[in-house]
Amino acid sequence: MGVLDRFRLDGKRLFVTGGSRGLGREMALAIADAGADVVLVGRDLASLEKTAGDVRALGRKAWTVQGDAGIPAECERICRTTLEDFGPIDILINNVGGRRVNIPTQDMPLDTWRQMLDLNLTSTFLCTKLIGGAMVTRGEGGRIINIASINALVSNRGIAGRHYETAKAAVLQFTRATAADWAPLGITVNAILPGGFLTETNLRWIREAPAVIETFKTQIPMGDLGKPEDLGPLAVYLASDASRYMTGAALVIDGGYTLW
């Protein structure tokens, strides 16, 4: 077996939340290109179908589950539907999340705080519990990739909404704890910590707070935001046998932002 063969994912099946757009879409396409079939979860049916069509164009199967994984009851329904209709799942990517609101801590309503924690943290817990739990029961190992953020390590400048930093730091520690628990079972659990990427969400921030984003870019040693497709190869690595001996890792991909 050549080294590149260890990155192949033929016969595997991916489940990815927030899989129709941005980073989720690019990871799904990369993993499909490496041979896996894909279950895409998202709120918008049109973008789900567009990404599913792009997966199928690569010669892989694709299924869509419409729903909001940021709502706990919806997230449970999505996971149970997937396991019943499209299982078994070999690769789980907990990708859904985002800052969404720019509210200072002193003004943050408790209900909004809880909603944002559900989006960024509870969704990761529930998918890991249900989809990852099915991997445990199945007994054939698996791969779990949690999308945290560099804001698990540092606070973002010029933007409030500290629910995001809090939740992503918790995702990172949940990754480590679950990795320790499930390592003997052949299930690896790793986290990707993206920096600034040109996703739809960040394009909105560019429109609403251009000075903040320009300042952010000047603080990146590589001088620019990342492209969503830059995340695909890293996701393939973590999903494949090439990363067999890596678990509990926090892999930063930020153009060097956290170096300074």
Main attributes?
single chain; 260 residues; alpha/beta; Rossmann fold; seven-stranded parallel β-sheet; 8 helices; 7 strands; 44% helix; 15% strand; globular
Strand content: 5-15%
Low-confidence blocks of residues? none
Structural class: alpha/beta
Number of spatially distinct domains:
1
Distance N terminus to C terminus? 41 Å
**In this structure, how is the largest beta sheet organized?**
7 strands, parallel
Query: What top-tier CATH class fits best?
Result: Alpha Beta
Strand order of the largest sheet: 3-2-1-4-5-6-7
Rg over CA atoms:
17 Å
Which geometry do the CA atoms define?
A: globular
Please report the total strand number as a whole number. 7
CATH architecture: 3-Layer(aba) Sandwich
Topology pattern, helix = H, strand = E: EHEHEHEHEHEHHHE
**Average residue pLDDT:** 95
Tell me roughly what share of residues is in helical segments: 40-55%
The CATH topology = Rossmann fold
